[in-house]
């Protein structure tokens, strides 16, 4: 451990590669995580230390580029010999948990920073640090995304009772995705990454289906409780003018459960506009699915707001583009989707989108081949992430020192989709081309037969997969890097 001082305070420096670390005392302090041996002739960096004084009026954000400038001559971390693409404005880098956290660092070191010179504002959303900061880091990360317009997020753990015990948490912290989505609003759009060699469970899906998931409220911001004994549950609305409206929910004769949830007209309208804008961008028709025949007021509100906004703001644009908008009952929509060839945007309420996006991903072959981008109603702000979890089973193997064959493609696409949006906002053509070529490199590798175990299993069946038919994680990342270099050399 190396120590230095910041404004008279001692700051820890861990013995790992460079990254930013969020701190309660110094909310945005970059910690130099240096390796035991430097790249300058193997000089032991743990014997070196340095200090600097900085007394800002408010906590300073120090990025990886800033710190590298400070320690130039002490730590050299060479990237590619080619000129890196300069990105003028920052992105927000949200780290995660378990196997995806390990892969996240490798992706940055192998596929992003050697090619792109970008200010990456780092927030550690790993569960231990969320617990240490009482989840404040999650809120700070969300507001940083609002400020800088581009967030790129690694998969994270949402703790249950078992995780609370495993990590000795102070409490069962909420889903960081839910927290961030409730702050940003907007819609999560999930779309499959189509590789020709991966067979589809739904062969008729020749085009992609994009799931637009409302990212606010409903079950993800609800109040639920166990009813321990007989009694009456009532829904009470108290207006700011003092008017009280009371509705009986249920008269319990025995123990049970009850749930109260909500949404806002403003959020539903934002969901609608994000969905209409995305459909126009893709030039695909848009379908909204609800169960308004049962939830006449709740789901009926979604249906009415979508229809009103469509008629007033988007109908002419849709007509000009030769596409359409339609509301359907969700059970009918599920059946129609299975019979379709794809090529449409499907707007779902929060829970429905959570479920249907996984079904669609598996229908195209793999949950590991799915993009996920949260688009805010302003059209400027996005958060890109992997659409899968933290791959706990592989992490347990990694902890035992066993090699894993973990699919990094969705995490790579989180970076490319974030950088593509940064490129669009900044009119950075070089960054756009790089991001597209990195995505192409991933697909090219898979289509050439270089892939991880999960994708080989999609082709041959898991029981038929043998060692040697697939690449381990780091080997696959190296293969993608080689393919990327090949693709870029032709540009």
From TrEMBL:
Catalytic activity: D-threo-isocitrate + NADP(+) = 2-oxoglutarate + CO2 + NADPH
EC number assigned by the record: 1.1.1.42
InterPro entries reported in the protein's UniProt record: IsoCit/isopropylmalate_DH_CS, Isocitrate_DH_NADP, IsoPropMal-DH-like_dom
Keywords attached to this entry: Glyoxylate bypass, Magnesium, Manganese, Metal-binding, NADP, Oxidoreductase, Tricarboxylic acid cycle
The keyword Oxidoreductase is assigned to this record: yes
Isopropylmalate dehydrogenase-like domain: residues covered: 90-480
Entry keyword annotation includes Magnesium: yes
Any one GO CC term of the record: mitochondrion
Cofactor note: Binds 1 Mg(2+) or Mn(2+) ion per subunit.
Classification via SMART domains: Iso_dh
Entry GO MF terms: isocitrate dehydrogenase (NADP+) activity; magnesium ion binding; NAD binding
Required cofactor names: Mn(2+); Mg(2+)
One Gene Ontology biological process: glyoxylate cycle
Family: Belongs to the isocitrate and isopropylmalate dehydrogenases family.
Protein name per its UniProtKB record: Isocitrate dehydrogenase [NADP]
